[in-house]
Amino acid sequence: MPRKKWHLPERQATDEDVYLNRRKFIRQAGLGSIALLGGCIPEKLLNPQQLVDPAKFLNPQVAEPTASPETAEPTPPSEWYPAPVNEAFATLDRPLTDERVAALYNNFYEFSTTKEVWRFIDNFEPRPWTVEISGLVQQPKTYDIDDLIGLMELEERLYRHRCVEAWSMAIPWTGFPMRALVDLVQPLSSARYVRMTSFFNPTVAPGQWDRSDYPWPYTEGLTMAEATNELTLLATGIYGHELPKQHGAPVRLVTPWKYGFKGIKSITKIEFISEQPATFWNSLVPREYSFLSNVEPEVPHPRWSQATEGFITTDPFNPERRPTLLYNGYAEYVAHLYG
Ligand SMILES: Nc1nc2c(c(=O)[nH]1)N[C@H]1C(S)=C(S)[C@@H](COP(=O)(O)O)O[C@H]1N2
Ligand SMILES: [Mo]
Question: Whose CA is closest to 168, among 241, 235, 93, 109?
Answer without folding.
Answer: 93
